[in-house]
Amino acid sequence: MSEFTVDQTTNGDGPPPAPPMAMPILVGAGFITVVSLIPFASLTCCLPSILGGLLATWLYSTKRDGPMEMSKGITIGLLTCLLGGIAAVAVIDLIWVVFDYQIGADSMQGMMMQLGELMGEEVAEQMAEAMEQAAEQALTPATIAMQFASAAFISAIGGLISGSLGAALFK
After folding, report:
1. How many of the other CB atoms lie within 10 Å of CB of 104?
2. CB-side exposure of 119: number of CA atoms within 13 Å?
3. Mean pLDDT score of the chain, rounded to an integer?
4. Rounded to whole angstroms, how far apart are CA atoms 146 and 163?
């Protein structure tokens, strides 16, 4: 039987059946995806993943009768964060391909130009040229692969942290 389903047939001898994990994972992953679409959210590293994983473990804990095992919390945190991180990359890349728009790129370029101007006119000109070249680059399979790999790595870290914290906090 899958861990994502509930076995409703108990004879009262064993522990109560575990609640399904699918809905808390989907809600937490949706939270991660939506927060990741906010410009500059990526600068917070794995904070959206940690918050989404905590949300999922909390939602799961509210349906349980007893304490949550650490392994269950980590499983929920990891699955939530991986799904949310990969979905966020997919949505961001879809927006880039369909609308030719990179979320937060204009704001980031403006901030970088302000920093470059503080360093001098020559540095600002070099930065402007580099940003122009970067903006002209297309979304390549290598770029997509790097995005998914980095999302999986950051999501794994966020999942471990959020799952462990969630299992410890939401007893």
Report:
1. 17
2. 13
3. 83
4. 25
Tokens of 104: 């937060």
The residue with greater pLDDT, 2 or 27, is: 27
Rounded-to-integer distance, Cα 61 and Cα 59, Å:
5
Angle at 61 between CA 88 and CA 21, to 5 degrees: 50
Q: Which residues are CB-neighbours of 48 under 8 A, at least 6 positions away? A: 31, 32, 35, 36, 41, 84, 158
Among residues 104, 87, 111, the alpha carbon closest in space to that of 42 is found at: 104
The model's pTM is: 0.76
Q: Which of 47, 79, 65 is nearest to 159 (CA)?
A: 79
The answer to whether 56 and 24 have CB atoms below 8 angstroms apart is: yes
Count the neighbouring beta carbons within 10 Å of the beta carbon of residue 80.
35
Please give the Cα distance from 26 to 83 (Å, whole number): 8
pLDDT tens-digit profile of 64-123?
A: 888 888 999 999 999 999 999 999 999 988 988 888 777 777 777 777 777 777 777 887
Give every CB contact of residue 111 below 8 A, 6+ residues apart in sequence.
none
